[in-house]
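Why GFA family protein? Reviewers of the renewal asked for a concrete example.
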Amino acid sequence: MLKGSCNCKGVAFTVEPLPGSSACHCGQCRKQSGHHWASAEGRVQDFSISGEVRWYAASGSAKRGFCPTCGCFLFWKHNDEEKMSFSLGVLDGPTGLRLQKHIFTAFKGDYYDIADGLPQREN
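Here is what the prediction returned.
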């Protein structure tokens, strides 16, 4: 079980992660996070969330959850899926997780290279 929280500790969560973690390089994730967004996912029913999460409809098919007090970007949820992604950067303490892939690399910023040898998916 992993525990995470926002900067102000107003939102906290626990989750049992599913296998797989990724770094998303799409334009929305880069703008929301300030770089690429590293995340893992869990089944919605396996999350326990305390505090208020505000949701932003990032597109017609997905939404992003954040703390309304400190603005910390915590979650990403596709409208038609029973799983939800969570930011690796908000986890409290050691995670035991490792990135497994890069996604939407066709949209990555020109100011960095992906050189860790992990699989890359252009979209």
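DSSP finds one helix and eleven strands in the chain. This is the kind of structural detail the renewal will allow us to pursue systematically.
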